[in-house]
Amino acid sequence: MPTVADMRGLTDRVVIVTGAGGGIGGATAQRFAEEGAVVGVLDRDAATAEATAASIVAGGGQAIAVRCDITDLDVVLASIANVEAEFGPIDVLVNNAGWDIFKPFLQTVPDEWRKLIDINLVGVLNMHYAVLPGMVERGYGRVVNVASDAARVGSSGEAVYAACKAGITGLTKTLAREHSKHGITLNVVCPGPTDTSLFASVLEGAANPEKLKAAFERSVPLGRIGRPDDLPGVICFLSSDDAAFITGQTISVSGGLTMAG
Questions:
Q1: Which of 33, 182, 253, 254 is surrounded by the fewest CB atoms within 10 Å?
Q2: Whether residue 140 lies in the annotated active site
Q3: 82-135 residue pLDDT tens
Q4: Catalytic one among 87, 161, 216, 237?
Q5: What class does CATH assign to 14-198+228-253?
C-alpha cells in the first residue's frame, strides 16, 4: 500500500473519514490509502484513530489522526483545519461515525434520544457545515454518508437511530440538489447488519445475543452478517471519478436483506 489505483480520480485526493478508528470507518480509511488518497482519520477515540493512521503510514500511505467529537461544531472546525494544514483542502468527506442502542422505543428515555440524535444526525450536520463551503468555493467535492438499512425499512429496537439515519438520507438528497451546480455529489450507503463494535453492543443489549445473531444471519439471502471490508469498495467508488454522474442516490450493502428499488 499504496497500490495501483483501481478507481479513477482518487490519487492524491484529500479524504476525511469520521469514526475511522475501527470497523467500517477504519477499513474505509485503509482502502482510500490503497487507492492513493491521503486520509484524515477522525475519531473521538484518539488511540484508535492513531492506530488506523499508523497502519496506513506503515503500509506506505499518507494519513493523519485527529481526535474529533463530531457533536461539537467548534471541535469539528478545528479538526478540519488540522487536516487541511497537513494535506490541503478537503476533496472527499465520508460521514461514517455513529452510535446506537437496542431497545424498544417505549423503554428508552429522552437523554438517550438526545445522544442518538447528537451523534447520528447533528454530528453529520456539523461535518457538512464545516466541509461544504470549501467544496463550493473550489467547485468540486464528493460526500458519502453512511446511513443504515434501518432507515429504509425500519428495525425493531432502533426507532430513534432509524429516524436519524432516515434524516441523513433526506439531508443528502436535498444537498445533492442544492450543490449539483457546484460540482459536488452526495450519496448514501446503507449497511445492513455488519460485524462491528456497534453491532456487538447491540447484541449485548439483547436477552439472547446468539439467538439474535443467528436470526440476523438467517434473514440475509447471502447467508452471513456483513463485514467491515464489505463497505469500502462502494464508498470509494462513489467518491471516485467513475461515479461522477451519480448523486442523490441510496445504495444498500446488506447481502440482499433489503431489495428496495
A1: 182
A2: no
A3: 999 999 999 999 999 999 988 899 999 999 999 999 999 999 999 999 999 999
A4: 161
A5: alpha beta
